[in-house]
Design goal:
- The structure is a single chain.
- With 52 residues, this protein is mainly α.
- It has helices at 9-22, 36-42.
- The chain is elongated and about 60 Å long.
- The termini are far apart.
Length: 52
């Protein structure tokens, strides 16, 4: 096996970031009743769950 590989550190860092993001899939709960199209039409800029 080759031991003198040239690894692009920027590419490796980007791959590690994607790996962190992928661990979130399936763990975030979303409001099934939230209609983003309706909120966009209304101009509702609030984040779901805001108390204001």
């Amino acid at each position: 096996m080759a031991t003198n590989l040239s690894i692009d550190t920027e590419l490796l860092d980007a791959a590690l970031e994607v790996g962190d993001i992928l661990t979130l899939f399936g763990t975030i709960k979303y409001d099934a009743d939230y209609d983003y199209k309706e909120a966009r039409w209304r101009g509702d800029n609030k984040i779901v769950g805001d108390k204001d």
